[in-house]
Design brief:
305 residues; alpha+beta; six-stranded antiparallel sheet; 7 helices; 12 strands; globular; binds adenosine-5'-triphosphate; binds manganese (II) ion; DNA ligase (ATP)
Length: 305
């Protein structure tokens, strides 16, 4: 079959303007990837990744020294930040006005990748319509004793349950041990409603297989269980963006996959900064049409579970 056509969001001029300080500085030890490797990865996957981050509030993980213990999560503007990254004001959960970040074009995105940003995390909404969620995520967090194969089976089970609610779920690896089941929704409800509705859905999902799932946070409750973390859907909370690298050995990527391909993944950590760009050339973006599948989020009541 022909190589899938994709829209070019990063121009040759954008690529030609890339320059990186300390390009050979390695992350995570002597055999780890370099700053240049990270920038090249983000340049290569940009046409796939940008549709999922443009216009959304972003938080970043930066690792300025290259040591894992020095990586940190950044949700607000910072010294030396490229000026192509946009900032905007909003309130936090304490009611204080704060500045947040968003990437509005390829330049801002590439500038962050050149600057040494390792991870991109997004809100499930766009800055222009901040109070209405347009994507929710069920973050499946396996406890001790759960295998990757069991995580995959659980995700497939959850897919069926969500489809029974007339939703269209998509899936990606988290880049860690779990998966993220992401559901595009019509942007109608505020965060409080969305958090409540995803709580009720998670409770219902867990009830279909209580020996597998839990919806409570306590780590002791998670042994041999999969925690359905729906709290990513609270206002201001984030999840790793599609195609984001993760700041750990070999830089695994949070990789969108088709439901069919999910079952053929044996080791999600093999989807990483060096392997993924080539794979994408043949697979295309399995999430390319995600926004066309937005449905109304059912507002189940907790009582009706
Ligand atoms: P895993 O599969 O290992 O669970 P994950 O990305 O889902 O990978 P979680 O620990 O389940 O990891 O989720 C953590 C989420 O919380 C991240 O997606 C991120 O958006 C957010 N986060 C991470 N670090 C911080 C931090 N220091 N402060 C606030 N939020 C954070
Ligand atoms: Mn998780
Ligand atoms: Mn989690």
């Amino acid at each position: 079959p022909a190589t899938p056509q994709r829209k070019r969001l990063i121009s040759d001029a954008d690529l030609a303007s890339i320059s990186i300080t300390n390009p050979t500085r390695r992350l995570f030890g002597r055999s780890g990837p370099t700053k240049l490797d990270i920038a090249v990865y983000y340049a290569l996957v940009g046409d796939f990744m940008l549709p999922h981050i443009l216009g959304r509030p972003v938080s970043l993980v930066r690792c300025p020294t290259g040591k894992p213990q020095d990586c940190f999560f950044q949700r607000h503007p910072f010294t030396g930040m490229p000026n192509s990254v946009e900032t905007f004001q909003s309130i936090n959960s304490e009611g204080e006005t704060k500045s947040y970040l968003s990437v509005e074009d390829a330049k801002g995105y590439l500038a962050l990748a050149q600057f040494g940003v390792v991870e991109f995390h997004t809100w499930g909404t766009v800055r222009k319509q901040l109070e209405k969620a347009d994507r929710v995520v069920f973050d499946l967090d396996p406890g001790e004793g759960i295998t990757w194969r069991e995580v995959v089976e659980a995700a497939v089970h959850i897919r069926g349950e969500l489809e029974a609610l007339d939703l269209v779920p998509f899936v990606k690896t988290s880049g860690g041990k779990g998966v993220h089941v992401v559901v595009p929704i019509a942007p109608k409800h505020n965060w409080k409603k969305v958090h409540q509705a995803t709580s009720a859905i998670a409770t219902r999902l867990a009830a279909t297989a209580p020996e597998v799932f839990t919806t409570t946070m306590g780590k002791d409750k998670r042994v041999k269980r999969i925690f359905i973390d729906f709290h990513r859907n609270a206002r201001g909370h984030t999840a790793a963006a599609p195609y984001s690298l993760r700041a750990r050995t070999n830089l695994p990527a949070s990789t969108p996959v088709s439901w069919g391909d999910l079952e053929s993944i044996d080791a999600p950590e093999d989807l990483n900064y060096s392997s993924l760009p080539d794979l994408l050339v043949t697979s295309g973006d399995p999430w390319a049409e995600i926004d066309a599948f937005a449905r109304d989020l059912p507002l189940l009541s907790e009582a009706g579970k």
